[in-house]
Structures are given as C-alpha cells and as structure tokens.
Amino acid sequence: MRKLRARVCAAAVMVAVVAVPLAGRADPSTELPHVSASAWLPSIGTGTLVRTNATRGEPDAELKLPADALVVQGAGHVVLFDRAAGTATPVDTALLRYGAAVPFGEPLGEAVVDGRGTIWFAVLGRGAVVPMRAGVAGPAVTVTRGGDTLPLVVVAGRAMAVDATTQSLVGLDGAAAAPLPAELAGRPFHAGGSTDQRVAAFVTGSRLVVSWLDTRTTEVVDLPARRPGRPVVAGHRVIVPDGGRLLVHDLDTGATEAVTVADRPATLDVFAQDGLVWANAPDGPEAMVWVDDAWRRIRKYGTRSASTKAPRPRPTPSTTVRPEPSPSERETPGPSVGGPQAGPSPGGGGPRPSPAAGGLRCGGVLTADGALDRDLRCSGTAGITIAADGVTLDLRGHTLSFAGPPPAGAEPIGVAARAVRDVQIRNGVVTGFLRQVELRDSRDVTLTDVRLKGNRGLRAVAVSGLRLSGVSIGPEGRNSHALTVTESTVDVQESSIVGDNSGCFLSTCRFVGGNLSVDLFEATGPLTMRGTTVWCKVCHVHDGGTAVIRDGEIRRLNMPGGLPRIVGNRITGPLRLGLNPDSPYPNGGPAVERNDIVGSALVVDAQSAGRMRGMRIVGNTVSGAPGQNFYSSGEGIRIDVPEGSDILVAGNTVRNSRGYGISAPQGVLDGGGNTSDTGCVGVRCG
C-alpha cells in the first residue's frame, strides 16, 4: 500500500494541562520547531501529552494536562478545550507553554481544524459553530436549533456541520451545502471527512456509508465491526476505529483489512495530519502511525538513555561532477541561454567541449544538487548520473538531449540513478536518448514538471515511492515504450503518458488526473486511475491483478483479464471488459457502477468457459449506443457470458440505443430498477 494522502482531520481526545518539557529534551526557553512528521498524543494514565516523531517512533517533547481537557490538532495547531467549562486554550508547542483561555460561555461539543488552520467549535446550546483564529473567537455560524450533538467534519479543507433537522451538511465558511445520504435517515452515526477531496464518510451500526458530495453518489459497505467509531478518509482509504483495532477499507479495490493497535477493548482516537494517519489509545501505551507505506508502532513513554545520541545532520557536500573518461564523448553546445561562449580551442580546429551548463557536463556524476543554465547536447553513452542521496537535478527549463547515433551496442541514458533515495528531477526536457530516464534500486524519487521525449521515456526497476507530478512522457510519434515500471510503487499525478506500449509489472501503480493514451498497457499488480482521461486500445490486466478506474473520462478501453472496477466515469468511447470466469474475484468482484456512457456502449464477455461470479453492473446511464461497438450490435449494455453467471444487474438506464437497452443471458441476478426505451433481454426493464 502506498502512503496515505491526507492533511487534517480533527481528533478530540481525553487528555490532561501544565506545560513542562520532557526531561532532557527541551528547555522552556528554547523554541521547538513544528515537526511535520510528528503529532501530540495524549495518555490519560500519565496525565501527559507527548509529541511523538513518526520517523523515530518515540517522543521528543511533553506537556502535562488536566484530565478534563480535550485536544484538537491539525495544520500546525494544537488547542485544548474543556467541554463543560466552555473554554479553549491554544498551546505554544515551540515554547512548551499555553496561552490565555478563550471563553465561549456555553458547553462545547466537537471541534475540528480546517485546511487554513481555523479551529471550529460546536456550541451545543445555540446549535451554532464558532471559529477561533490566532487565539480569538469569531462570530458564530448558526446551523440548527440547540441539541445534544452537532457533528463537525472537514471536507476538501473546508469545515462543515451536520444539520440533523434538514439532513444536510452545512458549509461553515461559504462551502456549498450537500444532502446527507438517505441511508442515515433516522439513524445515529459517526461522521468524518477528507481535506483533499469532497468526500464524507459515515458509520452507522456496522455499515460504512461514503458520500461523494459533488456527484451526490454513495457507496455502502458492510464492515465486520463490533464497536465502530468516527471514520477518517485518507486518500482512497477510509479508516474506522473498532475497539482496539482499525478497519481499513480501500475505496478502489473494495478490500477491508483489520489492523490491531491494542490487544484489548480500547477506545482509539484516529486522525490524519501532514500526510500521516495516527491511531492512539489514550488510556494506554498503544499508538501507531501510517508512514512509509506501513503501519508502525509508536512509543509514547520514557526518555532516551544518556548514551543515545540525537541524529546528526548530514553535511551538505559541495557540488561534485566527475566526467566519465570517455574520449569519444563530446559536448555540443545547444542554444545559448546566458553566459559566455567558449573561445577557440588551443591548436586551432578539431572537436572541443562547450562550457559546462551550470557545472554539469555530459557523462557527469552528480553527488550534490545541480542545475543547468543552458541546453546541454550529448553524444557517446551517458547524460547525467545521480549517485548520492538527497540530490536535486534542476533542469531550469532547459533541454538535455542526445546527438546520436549511439556507439555500437550502447544504450545512452539521459538521466540515470541507482541505489539512491530522496532524489528530485525537475523542470525541463530530456530527449533523444535511447532511454530518457532510468531508475533502479532506489526509494522516494520525484519527477516534477519534466517532459521526456523519445523512443523510451521512463523505466523504473525496484523503486519504492516513485512520484511523477506534471510529467509528460511521449515521443513525437507513437512508436515507443513510454512508461515501464517493474517491482516498484508509483504515483502519477496530473501527468500525460502517450505511446505504443507501457506497463506496470509486479508493481503498484496509481494515476490521479492527467491522461493515459496508449495502444497497449499491461499490468500484473494493482492499477488505479482516479480522475484520469483514458484511451487504451488494449489494457491487459493479468490474472490476479486489480484495475480501478473511477471519476475520470474513458475515451476507449478494451480490458481483458483481471478484476476491473469501473466507477463514476464519463465514457465517450468503446468499453469492453473481458473477464475470466474462474478467477476468485475477492472483495465483491468486478464492478461497473454509476458511469455516464454517452454515444457508446458497455460490453462484458468471458475470456473462457465457465460461469462468472460476483460481478455488479449497477446504476449506469447509457445514451445513444451506436450500431457496432466491439462485440455489441447496438445494445446499450451487452452481457455475453454463460447462463447462470452470478452478475447483478440493477438500476441501469438506457436511452436511444440502436438495439436492446440491455442484453443479458438467462440467470443473471435481476436487481430491478433497470429502464430502457428499446426493451431488454434477460432482465426486466421499465
């Protein structure tokens, strides 16, 4: 699993108040900087609130707090509040002291911190919510009549309140209101949100209800819950505390896993902050954090021994560039972008190197940050090699290119990195090499605002935490391998991948936004696309692999094999899913749900003999299906699988198709609610 992406969700937890430093760690007169990889975790038994570092897994500062206080934290703020007294006290976590109490005059309910650092408090008697900024209370926002509860959530960074009388989420700072899911009517529930998307989650009984506010669609999941609490949405996962464990539901794959925090019936406080998710048992020593793609246990008590030294900062070396001793390799100056030009070489004619671009030369080995100050054109076998941790290569808008042709048997690489971590490549163009960028055996490598042009764009082998943001990979033509990822994890955000072939082999690949346009894409591991524009002549997901495409645009998709989940997309081109009947299909099986299919059709068929099991085709809208679409003869939805297959068909609407609205074999599960103006076969249509 990849790192969970979320910033702020409120945590209100019973804690203790007297600001003192943890022995041997902080002097009250010494400022402690805000640490983004840390959180303040309360412990009722010791009457303390400790700042715990996620990377080291141990505390580094401490506050003493009264037992009747609660704490809310997020966006760099920590605030104590006393519900009964109706007061809130900001904490100066740098100086380890607290400020003046802010009175609200009435008992308080829940509290949350929004994406801008404003703390919102529910004032129950008035049915209102009051903001606090910089230690000062602002004007109240009336939500409903007074009552015992007034749930608060943060959605897309905006604070919202639950108005039970109107069954709606009310924006507190001008955010658009949204109706509550119908599944919550008349039922008690816990509510949570997400700061990076317009999604809210609710737990009622043992059911998880996820609501996408913009599309007003919901997903209902039955959880194996015993004592569920307030959910937290982090990226594509929803975390629900349940006694001493967490139930982690993956919205993309439909899988739910249990993670044990305490081997006892503890009450867990769960919150997301600065990209991490924390789970704490206030009444005991147990705590965990999701960091570096895994749940890690956290120590809340005790001090370091005197023999334990603080981590030493790594010195920043001077830029070192070591040209490879290749007599055949020369630099040819590209277009001049500032700086002097080289003068005549000694001795008159013959090839000569150009001045280095920002100290960088072709064949150079980079062991500290480096940047181009002009275009750099290479021949021979190598462009630039990154050979140290923590290095940033900034192209500064320039082009690193290959003159060619390469020497016999050589495979010139534009930018190469091996066995490094925390590396960044950004802001420019790499083109003309046999492979533009190649990464191996590395961790936490980020490409930002880079364009890779040529026959082969990016190859990553055994790279954990590869991130692409604003990257364009694609040749002038289409005869290329744009993106090849093997035994790696990659997040592709708002990027463009264009070419003949691409693939994710034994890897976890996630796309957010951007576009993928390829003739052939192969995947042998989890593949996720959210908000992505997809044109894929053949997307082959091999057996056992999952493929989730949701909330984007599909212009063409032919997907044989795997476990597809196609949810909430606008589909404007052919869509065909070829399924394997004998696949086990865990977590509810394949699904095609809540899609808007315009001028096209959905075709589901079997790759081999055998009955299909556990598929859902639910809530889709199809209009204007043409006469020929893959294996369709004009049906809006064509299901061509053996009779008696376990496929649920429900709530689909088909209009203006050339053939039947829905064509299905006998024995599929007719869930009702299907409609068509041209009739249906295999299911009833209104």
Automatic annotation (TrEMBL):
Keyword Signal: yes
Region (Disordered): 302-360
InterPro entries for this protein: PbH1, Pectin_lyas_fold, Pectin_lyase_fold/virulence
Transmembrane segments: none
Entry superkingdom: Bacteria
Record bears the keyword Signal: yes
Family annotation (SMART domains): PbH1 (SM00710)
Biased composition (Gly residues): 336-351
Keyword annotations: Signal
Signal peptide positions on this chain: 1-26
Protein name: Right handed beta helix region
Source species: Asanoa ishikariensis
Upper lineage: Bacteria, Bacillati, Actinomycetota, Actinomycetes, Micromonosporales
